[in-house]
# Entry
Amino acid sequence: MRDLIRRAGVTAGATALVLGASAGAAAASTGAPASHLYWANNQAGTIVEAGLNGTTAHIIASGQKGPRGVAVGASHLYWANNQAGTIVEAGLNGTSAHTIASGQAQPFGVAVNASNLYWANEAAGTIVEANLNGTGAKVIASGQAQPLGVAVDASNLYWANFNAGTIVEANLDGTGAKTIASHKGSMFGVAVNASHLYWANHITSPVGTINEANLDGTSAKVIASSQNGPTGVAVGP
# Structure
């Protein structure tokens, strides 16, 4: 599986393509110019940068251990090394890659806004918040059922609980967490823009669908079906 992210957006989860200031995918704008595309090759252990049309793709970081979620801030690139239990920060061109958080329990989705970094620990069932340099990392939500995708906007944090088949919304500090969508599907990626929430159902009913709902989870509906194991989701502004 691989995670895709475009500069100026944030996303989470595997195989997420971010188209604008909202990922990962998806999440909140950090003011970075939308000029590059990034993805993580999980099995190869590489981070790739390309033009927005996929041309001039080249490896900017190698030797990673199960890279999953990728997020882009105003000046740095972040990803989760699922197998190593680490969060990595690098320059937007992949230089100076270094671990800023270790000892994580299979980190997966990553999201970033102007002031904080967020990630999901798949094995521990936790959502973590940290400063942009990885310091001050703390669990802000626990007891989650295999959280994967993470997204953030100006006022809320969202994540997908794969095992529970739920989408959760919380305040940016993790308080007030509540299920806003439950479709008994294996929720994977999650993305948000100014008006809607989106997620992918990976392998269980409704199988192979992309779903849309209001930001509070109401009026949920399938907007794309017959997909083959969708995972990450991204959305433009």
